[in-house]
Prior knowledge:
mainly alpha; 5 helices; Multidrug-efflux Transporter Regulator, Chain: A, Domain 2; globular
Amino acid sequence: xxxxxxxxxxxxxxxxxxxxxxxxxxxxxxxxxxxxxxxxxxxxxxxxxxxxxxxxxxxxxxxxxxxxxxxxxxxxxxxxxxxxxxxxxxxxxxxxxxxxxxxxxxx
Length: 107
């Protein structure tokens, strides 16, 4: 994909609804796309990749603030992976705890 996408095309490409894309722009997870002369926003391949990352992280249950931290770390590859590791471990502990509580309800 080399051409720019309108927001509807971006939504279809990533499986993320248009209002959700706008929300991610509002909260700063997805940078707003520059408008064209006709005042339409056009998204590039970087926006597609970033939005796919955000969607995947949300599917895994990461909160918006944790995703923001992960994205900040992705943009600075020279930084240590310790923060990413800590976020993942914290998230795994929360999931494990939830599974244990659900299994207790099952009995």
